[in-house]
Amino acid sequence: MKSNADFSIFLVDDDPFFLNLCEQYLHNLGFTAVRKYESSTGFLNDLLFQPGLIFLDYNLDSLNGIETLKKIKRFNPNFLVVFISGQEKIDIAVNALKYGAFDYLLKEEVTEDRLKVVLDKAIAIKTVLEKRNKKSLFMRLLPFLGLAAIILLVYKLFYK
User: Fold this and answer.
1) 50 torsion bin: left (phi>0), alpha (psi -120 to 50), beta (else)
2) Model confidence at 13, in pLDDT bands (50, 70, 90)?
């Protein structure tokens, strides 16, 4: 697994003060590959950079957090998204989790320690997914590797 410095994180929030605060917490924890976004449009265009984790606010510019989450999951269902919102409404939290959010944090509860707990869980999940994907790729290639070995053996036996 990559080091903390290489683990990419997107922060999406319309509050510049909160963005800077979260960025500082993440830097204190050793995470330096952090991108900040104050709108959903620029952020959605950068999903091609494959962030390791996305912290997403509920109240954004043209889209709310649930609509943005749906777009993220359509782009890549394996992206880990943590909602960070000032919304204390239980239905928003339930919908966020229903549509694939990894976790839901209230802004007033965000501390360096709380972010560390969430990041540790996210990194553990990413590590398991990477191992599973490597094993899956190997299993798909195994029949071809067997065929390649047979061809190489035949070549060595008859053409050397």
Assistant:
1) left
2) very high
